[in-house]
């Protein structure tokens, strides 16, 4: 049975880094194995930690509209690091590359905790994301090479399980720790743990002598491709952030960014097609067995998923006036729904051997959930109506599970590692779009509603600016003004489930078009 936890990635590092030892017994040091699990937990937790705290952190800098950069920067770093580690370890070996990953993660966490403004904090998050990509992806490759075949699946399933647990606990822990010890100490505390992982890996992970001819040509790292991909993704993210602004200089920036995106994406395609023997994204793969449509579906699905998740914290604070820790606890519904969705749909596929009808059914359920949410949540929902986002996430993970199964059955021989990397890159891209585009549109409508409700006097403009910069500023206002701001936010929030519904609607024709591959 294939699902999203099935190991697909092949060992990519060349013969110069192959571990010596028998295939009949494990060469995995127990202390090293334990520390890899800790690193995977950290990487997973740090990814979701800031989902529940990014608005709180941005408010502390007086830059609430820029809060989503704390999320986007991490995912951007992760997206850049993900395709890079396999190539880098070809050149420098497992040990050096893994130590660099641990070091980058530790430095990034420290930089975020010590940041004096949101841009430094976002830079720290990007550095952490690059490190975190290696702490999971590279460890998976190392275990493949160190352990005998019969143990690889078990060890890698443990790794993914621990990373999933970290992602599950990250959001609620983020809210609780932000209220308990503060977000700065919460971020700084991760650095010593990363250093511990570095120290154990430096001592326990063997350094393997190079094999083969020293003059043998090393693999192409495709640095131009990496740079162009980084420029393209970064420009798209900045463009999404500026969509909530209407000043003339913002319009000029948006046009400039569109030009940069078009040029950089064109150059990236030409580079992948003609200029490198080791492309990050082989273009022919996108035309094979509808795999390109699967990647597109992943972008729309994760866009809808994280568009809803990233806006929930603001809803809990502005509408229900909950503390950061209490709001973080509400995020427990998300990992519970995710685990249930993946498990139940995986079991259903295992019993039936079919996945396409399940994919269409789960997609319809997600669309219904967001439709009901668009009707009810702007009317001040009751507690039980948290069932809408719960069921939406449950069904979205059903879509993700079924599509991963279909992708696994259609991958060309020898392309497992590359296809899986692009698959996760497409998810990261969808996440980044959800983190930036939807909050920007929501903020734009919220600002418009506030101007309608409060007027355009000097005092009203000052109040609106303060409300937009600090999510808890509204509690300092008189009762009638608090009610007015709350009403404006409820009215503006309707766009969030509508955007999510539109995203899932784009996935429906893709799933209907793709053939159902036999599962063997």
Please give a structural write-up.
- By secondary structure, this protein is mostly helical.
- It is built from 20 helices and no strands.
- Residues 1-25 and 209-218 have low confidence and may be disordered.
Total beta strands: 0
N- to C-terminal distance? 8 Å
Considering DSSP H and I runs of 4 or more, what fraction of the residues is helical? over 70%
Domains, number? 3
Q: What is the C-alpha radius of gyration, as a whole number of Å?
A: 23 Å
CATH superfamily of the largest domain: MFS general substrate transporter like domains
Give the low-confidence spans.
Answer: 1-25, 209-218
How would you spell out the order of helices and strands?
A: HHHHHHHHHHHHHHHHHHHH
Subcellular location: Membrane
Domain Major facilitator superfamily (MFS) profile: 32-515
InterPro entries: MFS, MFS_dom, MFS_trans_sf
Protein name: Major facilitator superfamily domain-containing protein
Features:
disordered N terminus, 3 domains, Growth Hormone, Chain: A, 520 residues, mainly alpha, transmembrane helix, globular
Quick take:
The protein has 520 residues and is mainly alpha-helical.
SSE topology sketch:
Layout lengths: L29 H20 L4 H7 L8 H24 L1 H20 L4 H29 L2 H32 L2 H6 L1 H15 L18 H20 L5 H28 L7 H4 L4 H28 L5 H7 L2 H20 L3 H21 L10 H24 L5 H39 L3 H12 L9 H15 L1 H19 L7
Helix pairs in contact: 1-5, 1-6, 1-8, 3-4, 3-5, 3-9, 3-17, 4-5, 4-8, 5-6, 6-13, 9-10, 9-17, 12-16, 12-17, 12-20, 14-16, 15-16, 15-20, 17-18, 17-19
